[in-house]
Structure formats: structure tokens, C-alpha cells
Design brief:
By secondary structure, the chain is an alpha+beta fold. It has eight helices and eleven strands. The chain is 29% helix and 23% strand.
Amino acid sequence: MRFHPTGKLYDFDACNFPDLRDGDFVVVETARGQQLGQVIRLRSASSERKAGKGLKPVVRLATGADMIRRQRWRDLEQQALTFVRQVSRRMGLPIKLALAEYAFDGSHLTVLYTSEEKKLDLEPLKGELQEVFDVPVEIRRIGPRDFARLMGGYGACGEPRCCARFMSEFVPVAIKMAKLQGVSLNPADITGMCGRLRCCLAYEYELYQEACKLMPRRKKRVQTPYGKGKVIDLLPLKGVVVVQLEDDRVEVPVEEVELISS
């Protein structure tokens, strides 16, 4: 389940609620008190029993009153976020605010932000917020990818951002993934809205790795049906090797290419 429309997924034990369905709202106990969230995916009973060891249980199904309370907190959160933004600007703090979130019972307020600055003194901000909201206030830093996830919006491909649409966890992304797939290394082409390498570079990486095992390396001398030449490019998913001959450039199926021993 998740607590925010674009938030991370968390596991809870739902064995006591056999009629629970995807999309249902439930109240659960967390380290930060009771929270209301939405069920995203249910496991089978057997796997749920195994995974349920050590998991906190679902307390109850959400009621209509719970949903009204949830909307009330959402409205107050927007007001709180606007106020925190005004105060942080007045203080000249180099931070970008993601959201302000009340606990389901209103017992405390959490403010999430990101910043390029490594060390920030946010005690003055926390002190002023504490006085205004009259509840314990936690100011927590998140990474640029989590910030982009919470902001939502659209990626360079024109589709809603993957992190906000379906990704539950971020996977490591490295520049070698772009190189192997022949993607332009221009920062504008491989950098996401978060300022980090695009998550989609990892989607087909393993497929390219497997395909490249059958391919010769670039700059290697090879024999083709058209003569000898040098490998200048690879099209792994097509199983095609691009070879530069003396006066021509040809695309040859990998099974028709033979390495020339040095």
C-alpha cells in the first residue's frame, strides 16, 4: 500500500481482512502513528503469511468519516505548505519544498524538502513553525529523485514521469547503461527532470547485455560476405553489426560476421 498517490510502496499484514481488494483504503499502525493509505497490490494468502512475519497489521478498513478527515488534513496541508514556503523564502533558505503532511490523527506535521546545499541550519525555521502550528514539526530532507516523484508531471518522452506513475523503488543507473545502448551521451538526452540519469536507461539494459554477448566489439576487424572491414557500430536488438569496408558501410547480421584473428 502507499500513503501518497506517488509515494513508495509499503508492506502490511492483511491476513485478518480476507475481503480486502486493490484500491481499498485502510488504516494502519506505523512508526509515526496511525496512517490512512490505499491498497495497491494484494499477495496470495500463502505468500502473504510468509511475508507477514514481522509486518504490522492492518488496523481496519477506512470509513466515510476517515475519508472526510483525510480530505480535511489535505486541505490544511496545502495551507501549511504555502506558509512554510513563505517563511523559508523570508529566511533566504536554499531549499525546495515538496510537501507538508499531517499524521492521520493530526498529532504532528512533517515537511519534506530537497536542497543542493549539504549543511543547512533549519532550527530557526523549525522553531517558527512549531509556534505557529502548535504540534511537533519534523523537517526531513529527501533526494532529488524522491522530490521529482512527489512533484509528478511529464518526462521528456511526453509521458507522465515513471517515478510518479509506477516505480515503487529506484534502481541504480550508470553512464555505462547509456553507452551500451548507443544512447547519446549529451546530458540533455540522458538526464531526467530530477537532474540525475534517467531511470529508463535501466529498463532494457539487461536485454542489451545479453544481446551483446553474441556481438563483436567495436573497432574489431571482421570478415563479412561483402569483404573485410572494421566494426563501427552495433545494433544488438536487431542482431546487426555495422561494418565499415574500404569504400562502403554495410549492416550485416551477426551470424554472417567472423572475427579476424590479430
